[in-house]
Design brief:
The complex is a heterodimer.
Chain A: E1 10-12, E2 29-30, H1 44-47, E3 55-65, E4 71-78, E5 81-86, E6 102-104, E7 108-115, E8 118-122, E9 135-140, E10 145-150, H2 157-175, H3 204-214, E11 219-222, E12 238-241, H4 246-253, E13 263-267, E14 273-277, H5 288-299, E15 304-309, H6 317-331, H7 342-349, H8 351-371, E16 375-379, H9 386-398, H10 405-418, H11 423-426, H12 438-452, H13 461-470, H14 484-491, H15 498-501, H16 511-516, H17 529-533, E17 565-570, E18 573-577, H18 589-592, H19 641-644, H20 657-677, H21 683-688, H22 692-699
Parallel strand pairs in A: 14-16, 15-16, 15-17
Antiparallel strand pairs in A: 1-2, 1-3, 3-4, 3-10, 4-5, 5-6, 7-8, 7-9, 9-10, 11-12, 13-14, 17-18
Helix pairs in contact in A: 4-5, 6-7, 8-9, 8-12, 9-10, 9-12, 12-13
Chain B: H1 18-21, H2 55-60, E1 73-86, E2 89-100, E3 103-108, E4 130-132, E5 136-143, E6 146-149, E7 160-165, E8 170-174, H3 180-195, H4 204-211, H5 230-239, E9 246-249, E10 265-268, H6 273-278, E11 286-290, E12 296-301, H7 310-328, E13 335-339, H8 347-359, H9 366-373, H10 376-383, H11 385-404, E14 409-414, H12 420-432, H13 439-451, H14 457-460, H15 474-488, H16 497-506, H17 520-534, H18 552-555, H19 585-593, H20 598-608, H21 622-627, H22 640-653, H23 659-672, H24 695-699, H25 711-735, H26 786-801
Parallel strand pairs in B: 12-14, 13-14
Antiparallel strand pairs in B: 1-2, 1-8, 2-3, 3-4, 5-6, 5-7, 7-8, 9-10, 11-12
Classes of the chains: A alpha+beta, B alpha+beta.
Chain lengths: 700, 802
């Protein structure tokens, strides 16, 4: 009977109400009769890590290989994930998920079973496995690889069971269109002592606070989309020009694709703004007032506005997806590319090319916004993919605050999560055809910046890696929904719609449920405190930090030019436009498509060589301090090896970054010694160093 | 507030409005007033707007030519315009172009800008605008916008001169405003002195040495072993414990036996002396280095092949048999012969690959650069330079495996044992002998294997311009291989990549004797000849005396701050270490690292070993390597998967899959799966993504490649800051019991205080800082008026002074 079965299933009692979840391991295992003697091993500590509603489908003892040291433990397949539980390893109560040992079912890209010399790829549950596997290989779509060799050389029936269970679970999982998300409750967490949390931007207060932080005086928070009746993909709140009435907003937004009209992304202290909007809805027939509303929202009080066609010179979504697939194939441990052909194979994926074009475009735009102090409107048809990528990159390049750990997280929350990037679709969780890991492309761009400017970022490569991996972990809703509306629905934020009809309503609905709502930024779900400590870049040099170089003191260089000049920035050059909107006189170029202009026959596409066609009265302004100008040459764009080559047998070496952390450790240790020995220590020693322990206490 | 930021250099740069001066078709300058902004200090906003139209001021300005002792001015030309590549905007500096018997120099009028303290990493011998004659690679002339290679006698003189240097600088000189006679003189002078074949005697080296007799001999602190005495060889034998089976011989004193070999060398003890002279040193196994387990690395130049003479080849055969018998007999280990002339790189391969490779970096203008940029990786790959590096490293790993794991002697065989032999044997030593990773050790290694090993630098660098065919950058290839190691394991090396870069530059500076002879015999012989005539021994400088080129402050950049000296055997005495790990660190570390994903732990652990408490001994004891469970890892019958997994990859790495290569694979993988001991065996990664471009050397003159405020320079400056703090705290702790106040550690290096360094530091400093990605202000018809613009500039400068 043990042969054909899919293993015992352990029904774990849901323990939503239990505050100390996971702590009371043995209690939650209800053994369902007929246990084999061996399964005694699978006692408390194995099941203790189970989440509410999680069911263990099968398990087998095995040894994890490939990474040093080899770990004996247990391979467990549940209805949510495949996890490897090393012997004697206790899931900590505070981190119910493990970044190291867990493989979410969605994350499994390829499954292979090995016996002797034969090696079979397992695809569908229907395809029979003809042998008992000696070893199983799970290739993650996030480039991780889990290799587990079963005990006794594969003669163990459990090995068969667990393998089949994984196949089955994965197949079932992919059929489920909507992910439930793991309902975690962190009641036990003392939320009070945590450091300022990442604003989730689900309340208007968050938006107001953020607006004030940016010093965007000419803007206000619009509540017009509170009920998501303008657009479900838009956040409930966004920033519009102060002088624009809500009725005008409604008027204007109707003429944009999916109702995504122009909104403020970032206000440069020098006076310029970065806006983003969707493409013009060409089928609409706006009247004069509509056009005036649209124009006033796009201009937002500025005399000069530069429209940027976002997709121009950037890859299409399909390109990104194809490049990512190729990259994944190349980075497989048994990739077909020969060593001496590696570089051209890498080039052939075009992934680095895309990274480079994103950086280049972001660099150009950030120069326009900061150095030339011009307002820029990013326009993409959908306004949900590359607009977010560019606007976040521009902010990373221009704003030192955005390069802090908190700043970066709120940036991602604002420009990606709240702005409605369709994570679920783009990351291929739903299996929809529009899969394109734009967000991962963004993370790669950020990694390039981190490489190029190691002292300018407060977060480390490990943080990016954690964010990269989190994109496919089904624990929080942050990356599991396509729109803010769906996210809010699931989170139970607006369980009663009646409240929303109240115009003055701005309180967080049912404070209890919002508090319990977890986001991806609750890192302690998956990472323990030491790992979180590693999120900090030890090489971060706070002297470059904003405070000493307050850009606010920078006088505005804006010189009034000819009234309302509108420019189009495309293919590395500025061209004057007669009008902002495509509808006014005759169908203008803009209306034709989102790709407005035919590609100019330019021999060199480099910006450096090209005349930007910049009006001279825009002046040669100095580069503001704190602006990073990334390198985007072939030799400067590198492969993110710690991420993409994780699955390869050769282990990757770091640069000197770990050595810095070693020194950091040494420093804090020496300080500790000194403190112990000498009761009084000069205050500057205290302030200057960042003791890991203090970082820890801050982050908790 | 930061007053120093606004300090102006004593002389402000003199810049020209090129649009006034040039009107030719190649210069399409806009009508807008031409504005130049130079950042005086990196990361500051001090803008310096200089628009000069007064040419008289220029000509009156006297610029002095700095001549070395013995250096003679040959020809000069004035009002030459040197282009400064600055992204889209080309600008120029007027000055004098000078050719001496040592260098081509451009005396720009804004040289003064370089005198400020920014350029602390200044070469005392070679200035920014100096090109030694030996450093010139190609000279092109532009005739009516067509670029042609210049050589021999010219009928027509170009309007523009482009000089490609061997250190990959590219100079553009416009001769349009120069008098015709001067053009003729300077162009033919440059062509003649850089391209015509030269006699060894006419090298600048000798005139310099003759004129600079009073130069202090050698730096007493310079402990580089020169291997020009018997004592040095004995010392090396002692150091590697090779003296049991090998002896240093002086049979070649005065080069009586062979002119190819050094005066002293080391051979197996039982080798009869008469054998040594039999074939002029061919067919003799020469000792290179002994491994800790007694195995030795030997090299041998092949016997000359004479197929016609049966008797001779018979003799050769029996001679060789005798030699092999001697070295095969106990106490000698089994000898494995590695023939580098076959089944390995040919010099031709190296030459072709490098000439393709360097073209990627010799960029005439940024358009060309951007055009190639799109296909960067495939171009890089098609040059196959990186693949050649990989093959060299792989060969070195193979030999290392033989010595370390198989306990066999390795005999390298090559025609003259002076090219790839030098490369491979020194690579093996860098990987196996931690001493060779110190600066002194590395210099001694180069001295032993390359200088005494008779690598013909003169021919390989084509210093005498006698044959282009012989020009093969073998030594540069070696430096690039070492760079890969330095890049992959920075804490293991006492020196930095900057050291390697300046060493590669020193190849072309003819005041050092090190790289200007084909063999030690040639050096001594030439020395003796001139000694007869001048009755004074020539005092030839060695390149290892870095004080000739760099101030002590700049020399600090050659030293790796992360390097930790090998812990002394005496544990009580820890003074020699730069920093010490606190007691009980091991435990703390291991528990800490166990909490990380293994991929993280690896890197963290390897950094953990940067602490002086090393887990492994200097090298693996023999018994341990056999019994270690990791060695048996792949032999497990059940472990088919790994074989499967790795098989494909490694079989690509290693062509055949016989027993020997299995061992190699196992050796390579097992080493990489363990934490690195920076004072033990060091192996490079040789997979595709791991071999990289030596950006500092190859990209440093390309302004587009600079990242302001980024790159490793930023990390290193942070590191140094922390090191300093660690040191200070340690001193505090040390001083505590005695109640003494803490001594302030000396501020390390030039890095301190500079706000933003470029990614290609220190060389980037020599460049004018690109003001690039700011959108260029040209091509648009002015809408606002110029006054407005000027006003705003003023406004800004005022702001700076606040």
């Amino acid at each position: 009977m043990w042969w054909g079965g899919r293993g015992q299933s352990f029904n774990i009692a849901p323990q939503k109400e239990e505050p100390e979840m996971g702590h009371s391991g043995p209690k939650c295992v209800q053994r369902t009769g007929m246990l084999e003697p061996r399964s005694q091993q699978l006692d408390g500590h194995v099941a203790s890590g189970c989440l509410p509603g999680e069911q263990i489908l099968a398990w087998a003892p095995g040894v994890r290989k490939g990474l040093e040291p080899e770990l004996p433990g247990t391979l467990i397949c549940t209805n949510l994930r495949v996890t490897f539980q090393p012997c004697g390893w206790q899931r900590s109560q505070e981190t119910p998920l493990s970044s190291e040992y867990d493989f979410a079912l969605v994350n499994i890209g390829r499954l292979e079973a090995v016996s002797g010399l034969s090696r079979v790829q397992l695809l569908r549950p229907g395809s029979p496995l003809k042998f008992i596997p000696e070893e199983i290989l799970i290739h993650g779509r996030d480039f991780r690889l889990l290799r587990v060799a079963f005990e006794a050389g594969g003669l163990e029936p459990q090995a068969f069971q667990v393998t089949m269970a994984i196949v089955q679970a994965r197949a079932q999982n992919s059929q489920v269109q909507q992910y439930a998300g793991i309902p975690l409750s962190k009641a036990g967490q003392n939320t009070g002592s945590r450091k300022p949390p990442v604003p989730l931007l689900e309340t208007s207060e968050d938006w107001e606070a953020e607006r004030k932080k940016q010093g965007a005086r000419g803007w206000r928070v619009s509540t017009i989309n509170e009920r998501f009746d303008i657009a479900t993909s838009l956040p409930r709140y966004f920033w519009v020009p102060k002088r624009t009435l809500d009725s005008e907003v409604r008027r204007a937004f109707g003429h944009f694709h999916q109702g995504r009209g122009p909104r403020l992304s970032w206000h440069h202290p020098g006076g310029s703004d970065l806006l983003r909007c969707g493409g013009f809805y060409t089928a609409s027939d706006p009247n004069k007032e509509d056009i005036r509303a649209v124009e006033s929202m796009l201009q937002a009080g500025h005399s000069d506005v530069v429209l940027v066609d976002t997709v121009d010179e950037l890859p299409s979504l399909a390109d990104v997806q194809l490049a990512h697939l190729r990259l994944r194939a190349l980075c497989l441990p048994d990739s077909p590319a020969a060593e001496e052909k590696w570089l051209s194979a890498l080039e052939g994926t075009r992934w680095l090319d895309y990274v480079r074009s994103c950086l280049r475009k972001a660099s150009d735009i950030s120069v326009l916004v900061t150095s030339r102090v011009r307002s820029v409107v990013l326009q993409e048809r959908g306004d949900r993919d590359f607009n977010g990528l560019l606007s976040s990159l521009v902010q990373l390049l221009s704003v030192p605050e955005a390069r802090t750990l908190l700043g970066f997280q709120s940036l991602v929350q604002r420009e990606w999560v709240a702005a409605g990037h369709p994570f679920l679709t783009r990351l291929g969780v739903t299996g929809a055809s529009e899969e394109a890991p734009v967000f991962l492309l963004f993370l790669d761009c950020v990694w390039q910046l981190l490489q190029q400017f190691p002292a300018e970022f407060e977060f480390s490569e490990f943080f990016l890696l954690a964010l990269h991996d989190s994109a496919r972990v089904p624990d929080t809703l942050t990356f599991l929904r396509d729109t803010p509306w769906e996210r809010g629905k699931q989170g139970g934020q607006f369980n009663s719609y009646t409240q929303i009809y109240n115009p003055g309503y701005c309180q967080p609905p049912a404070g209890n449920s919002v508090n319990s709502q977890l986001s991806v930024w609750d890192w302690d779900l998956r990472y323990n405190s030491e790992q979180i400590l590693q999120f900090h870049n030890p090489g971060y040099d706070p002297e470059h930090c904003p405070d000493s170089w307050l850009p606010r003191q920078q006088p505005s260089f804006m010189v009034p030019g000819p009234p309302s000049s509108v420019w189009l920035f495309s293919r590395g050059a500025l061209t004057p436009l007669n009008q902002l909107c495509p509808w006014r006189d005759n169908p203008s170029l803009l209306a034709v498509s989102s790709r407005w202009l035919p590609r100019a026959a330019i021999s060199s596409e480099s910006l450096a060589d090209q005349e930007w066609g910049l009006p001279s009265h825009w002046g040669a302004c100095p580069l503001p301090p704190g602006l990073l100008l990334p390198g985007y040459l072939g030799p400067q764009i590198r492969l993110w090896r710690r991420c993409y080559l994780r699955g390869r047998p050769e282990v990757q070496k770091g640069l000197s970054a770990p050595t810095i952390s070693g020194l950091q450790d040494e420093l804090s240790h020496l300080q500790e010694l000194l403190r112990k020995w000498t009761p009084r220590i000069s205050p500057e020693d205290h302030s200057k160093k960042r003791d890991p322990n203090t970082i820890l206490s801050q982050s908790r | 507030m930061r007053a120093w930021l606004w300090d102006r250099p004593p002389h402000t740069p003199v810049l020209f409005k090129i649009s006034d001066l040039l009107a030719g078709p190649i210069f399409a300058f806009p009508e807008v007033p031409w504005v130049d902004h130079t950042f005086e200090k990196m990361g500051t906003l001090n803008m310096n707007l200089e628009i000069h139209t007064n040419e008289k001021e220029v000509t009156e300005k006297e610029v002095t030519l700095h001549l070395l002792p013995g250096e003679q001015l040959l020809c000069e030309a004035s009002t030459v315009l040197k282009y400064v590549q600055e992204d889209s905007c080309q600008r120029g500096i007027y000055g004098k172009l000078v050719c001496t018997d040592f260098k081509i120099a451009f005396l720009g009028d804004d040289d003064s800008a370089l005198d400020n303290d920014e350029t602390q990493f200044k070469n005392k011998v070679i200035g920014e605008n100096d090109i030694t004659l030996h450093c010139v690679d190609q000279i092109y002339g532009v005739f009516d916008e067509k670029k042609k290679t210049l050589f021999g006698q010219l009928k027509k003189y170009p309007e523009k001169l482009i000089i490609h240097c061997k250190d990959l600088r590219v100079f553009h000189f416009c001769l349009r405003y120069t008098k015709e006679e001067e053009v003729k003189r300077i162009v033919s002078g440059i062509i003649h002195h850089t391209q015509a074949p030269k006699l060894l005697k006419r090298l600048f080296l000798f005139s310099y040495a003759a004129a600079a007799q009073n130069h202090a001999a050698t730096d007493p602190r310079n402990h580089t072993v020169m291997f020009d005495t018997l004592k040095d060889w004995c010392w090396e034998l002692e150091r590697t414990k090779g003296s049991v089976k090998y002896k240093a011989v002086s049979v070649n004193e005065g080069y009586k036996v062979c002119e190819r070999l050094p005066a002293y060398f080391v051979v197996p003890t039982p080798l009869p002396e008469e054998d040594l002279s039999r074939f002029q040193g061919h067919g003799i196994p020469l000792w290179c280095w002994s491994c800790h387990n007694g195995c030795a690395l030997l090299k041998m130049s092949a016997l000359p092949k004479k197929e016609q003479d049966d008797g001779l080849s018979q003799m050769q055969k029996s001679f060789l048999d005798g030699i092999y018998k001697t070295i095969h007999r106990p106490p000698y280990e089994i000898v494995k012969t590695e023939d580098l002339s076959s089944n390995f790189l040919s010099l031709q391969d190296i030459q072709t690959a490098y000439s393709k490779f360097k073209q990627l970096f010799l960029i005439d203008n940024s358009t060309e650069f951007w055009d190639t940029d799109i296909k960067w990786f495939s171009l890089l790959e098609s040059s196959s330079w990186l693949d050649i590096i990989r093959r060299c490293l792989k060969k070195a790993i193979e030999i290392t495996e033989c010595l370390e794991a198989q306990n066999v002697n390795v005999l390298l065989l090559e025609e003259n044992a002076s090219d790839l032999c030098c490369l491979v044997s020194s690579l093996v030593q860098v990987m196996m002998d931690p001493h060779c990773r110190t600066r002194i050790g590395f210099q001694s290694l180069v001295q032993k294997e390359w200088i005494m090993g008779g690598h013909s630098f003169l021919d390989r660098c084509n210093h005498l311009r006698q044959s282009d065919k012989e020009e093969v950058p073998v030594f540069l290839l070696f430096l690039d291989c070492v760079w890969q190691l330095v890049h992959q394991h920075p804490p293991a090396f006492d020196f930095t990549e900057t050291y390697l870069t300046v060493l590669s530059d020193s190849l072309y500076i003819p005041i050092f004797s090190t790289f200007f002879f084909n063999s030690p015999h040639q050096k001594d012989n030439v020395g003796r000849e001139s000694q007869d005539t001048q009755s004074k021994p020539l005092n030839l400088l060695t390149v290892w005396d870095w004080s000739v080129q760099f101030e002590p402050k700049a020399q600090m950049l050659l030293k790796n701050p992360l390097y930790v000296e090998k812990p002394k055997l005496d544990k009580g005495q820890r003074k020699g270490m730069r920093f010490k790990g606190p007691q009980g660190r091991g435990g703390r570390f291991s528990s800490w690292f166990s909490l990380f994903p293994a991929s993280w732990t690896r890197t963290a652990l390897s950094s953990g070993t940067a602490w002086p408490e090393h887990q492994r001994q200097l090298s693996l004891p023999l018994t341990q390597s056999k019994s270690s469970p990791k060695r048996g890892f792949f032999r497990e019958e059940t472990d088919h998967l790994i074989k499967n997994l790795l098989g494909k990859r490694i079989s690509k790495l290693i062509n055949s899959s016989d027993e020997l290569h299995d061992n190699l694979r196992e050796f390579y993988d097992s080493w990489h799966s363990k934490p690195t001991d920076y004072h033990g065996l060091l192996l490079p990664h040789i997979e595709g993504p791991e071999i990289k471009v030596w950006a500092q050397r190859y990209l440093r003159w390309i302004p587009e490649a600079q990242i302001l405020g980024g790159g490793r320079a930023a990390t290193v400056s942070k590191l140094l800051e922390m090191m300093e703090e660690v040191e200070r705290l340690q001193e505090k702790i040390d001083a505590r019991p005695h109640g003494q106040g803490a001594l302030l550690a000396e501020a390390p290096l030039l890095l301190r205080g500079s706000a933003r360094l470029s990614a290609l530091f220190p060389f980037a400093l020599l460049q004018r800082h690109p003001s690039k990605p700011v959108l260029p202000t040209s091509g648009w018809k002015a809408l606002g008026d110029e006054e407005d613009l000027a006003k705003r500039e003023d406004e800004f400068v005022d702001l700076g002074d606040v």
